[in-house]
Amino acid sequence: MAVLDLERGVVVVRVAYDGPPMAGKTTSIRALGRSLVRHVETPQEIDGRTMFFDWMEYTAGVFEGHQIRCQVVSVPGQQHLAPRRKALLLAADAIVFVADTSSPEAAAESGESVTALAGVLQGRSPPVGVVVQANKRDAPAAIGIPMLRALMGNALSGVAITESVAHEAEGTRETFVLAVRLALDRVRALIACGAMPHGRPEVDSADDLLMSFERLDTSSVSELPPGDPCEVPALSRLVRGAARERAPRLPDVRVPSGAIWPAVDGRLILHEAVPSDLRARRSDGGAWIAGTGTGWRIHSAADARFPEFDAGREAVVVWARAHAARLPLLSPGRCVVVAESGDGAWRLWQIVRVMPSLRRRLLDLAYGSDASTVLDALTSAARTLFEASTDPLSAGLPLTFDSVGEGERGAQIVSLLSAPAELDPLTVLDPEDARRHLRSQIETLLNLDLWDRLPDLRAAVAAGWSRAGSDEWQARVAEAVEASKA
Amino acid sequence: MATAKEALTVLMQIDGIIGAMVVDSNSGMMLASAGGGPLNLELAAAGNTEVVRAKRKTVRSLGLQDSIDDILITLSRQYHLIRPLASNDALFIYIALDRTKANLAMARHSLSQAEKDLVV
Q1: A390: Cβ–Cβ under 8 A, 6 or more apart, which residues?
Q2: Structural domain of residue A156, as residue ranges?
Q3: CB neighbour list of residue A137: distance below 8 Å, 6 or more residues apart
Q4: Is there a single domain that holds both residue A99 and residue A231?
Q5: Where a domain ends, among A315, A332, A353?
Q6: A400 and A344, same domain (yes or no)
Q7: In the list A397, A446, B101, B117, which could disulfide-bond B16, CB 3.0-4.6 Å?
Q8: Which residues of chain A make contact with B44, given a CB cutoff of 8 A?
Q9: Complex-level ipTM
């Protein structure tokens, strides 16, 4: 997985947190996130169980003059998700194995899990370093470290063991730094054997990883052979290979007249957004996407394929009308284009410059700011979203903290547009519906993204952050915070 | 015997202290930090890692059979002190002090004491 990204001046490494179910993998990453003031994304969680992974990025430190960009992921611990676990482990440069040492029984399960991990890592060269993080050291019946070593047997020889109480963030940071050190040892070995990949990593965000994950055929993952990573496909290479197989050609500035809207600015966008070496890859649901991490979203729906150019051009006209009718509410830097897909057909693409959504801005501010600042930002975001919801031009558009941002003239849609046929002009919300919709959006944000700030936020509300009656949205945010799940 | 967090708590009592951290000189990442004010501690950790590496390289190049006790960098308004751990040369402590408030000799003494007590 390690990649030397000279363009951004960083070396990218991945540290994976492995361990048996409920050992404290997610807790460790979240504690680390709080300690490093970084946001942890968890694509899907059911009853506190990780279904895919937790994701955190952290750029710091220095390696051979380059900053170190760490992708920190946790694996799902449940047995039926083993193929997902294996895929993540195969793409890791270092592993933190979180062992539950709260009781002899739990530690025995961790010992078995270590054996499974050793099987996955067997034969990898350069080897992947493992740190065992003995967690739950505050438990009354916690076992001793010598006993943990005995339970692990010879599955992993010479591993370092650190101690932690993850829910109190004790020992998690030291463990992480040790794991980064091991990842850098692996990078040195890859450089020495001439196998260090260069360029931008295929997986550069939680979204990228989720897409590659959902695309991955789990049975093929479980059949991946062990061996030399200089030869054996890691997850990223596997996904890259699958994407190359069937990827349609991306549009470029040579598209025919009438195939692009807006005609002049659209070509300028193509020039900027679609460099010649960019490749599309398939996302969940069959859509083709490109440009992740470049500041552009390049998207073609699964069914946006036309056997004839004329049919594609007619579709561009329909899309252009849908855009033009809502132009004041749309973020700038957009175009719609139909281009040859390389297999004799034509494909319609939507290209949008990435602008920060209300949610992104809020999360960027949420970790590292005091509770009052977060509440003020949430109030401002709620007001902006309400403004967008009641704008007649927003009829049928997606209205969430993710799809709406704030431009120079107020609320604006920053997401891709739905297909024109789905833009129902009759669905504009009346103010009361908009308030209800907004309340549900605020609650979702609080419970999913800001859950670990909720105690702080509640305390700030209780201490009189909102001056009742002075501002409608301040009062609504305060209500939502108080009503949020503990 | 003190953990990194406990050692930093002691260091934060030095007169004129601005910030303190324990840094892994292999990766340039912080294991623990305290204070900092306007200082970007992550950046300082990475930058001072380069300082430690460069000085060690120089000591080796000169063929000196010696080790670094501490490194002092004097700015016009601040002192920056770096002290590798004798017990673990992959780690060092870094503190930044306000020159108008700090007593350099006392600060070096406190840093030396904290380094001896620190167990990571």
Answers
A1: A428, A429, A431, A434
A2: 3-240
A3: A101, A163, A164, A165, A170, A171
A4: yes
A5: A353
A6: no
A7: B101
A8: none
A9: 0.86
Same structural domain, A219 and A281: no
Q: Does residue A285 fall inside a structural domain?
A: yes
One-letter amino acid identity for A469?
Answer: G
Picking from B4, B27, B30, the nearest residue to A184 by CB comes out as B27
The verdict on residue A250 lying in a domain is no
Q: Check whether residue A389 and residue A276 sit in a common domain.
A: no
How many domains does one find in chain A?
A: 3
Q: Are residues A16 and A137 in the same domain?
A: yes
Residues A192 and A61 in one domain: yes
Q: Do residue A284 and residue A376 come from a single domain?
A: no
pLDDT (tens, 9 = 90+) of chain A, 486 residues, equals: 899 988 888 999 999 999 988 899 999 999 999 888 888 888 765 555 667 788 999 999 999 889 999 999 998 876 666 777 888 898 999 999 999 999 999 998 888 888 888 888 887 888 899 999 999 999 999 999 989 888 888 777 778 899 999 999 999 999 999 999 999 999 999 998 888 988 888 888 887 887 776 655 444 444 333 444 443 334 444 344 444 446 888 998 888 888 999 988 898 899 888 887 788 877 756 788 887 767 888 999 888 999 888 999 999 998 998 888 888 889 999 999 999 988 888 999 999 998 888 988 888 787 678 888 888 889 989 989 888 888 878 777 778 888 899 888 788 999 888 888 776 665 666 778 778 888 888 888 887 778 778 888 888 888 888 665 567 788 888 888 888 755
DSSP state of A144: P
Tell me, letter by letter, the H, E, C secondary structure of B10-71. Answer: HHCCCCCEEEEEEEECCCCEEEEEEECCCCCHHHHHHHHHHHHHHHHHHHHHCCCCCCCCCE
- Whether A356 has its CB under 8 Å from any CB of chain B: the answer is no
Q: Which of A177, A178, A181, A187 would you mutate first to test chain B, the one with the most B CBs within 10 A? A: A177
- Distance of alpha carbon A418 from alpha carbon A421, whole angstroms: 8
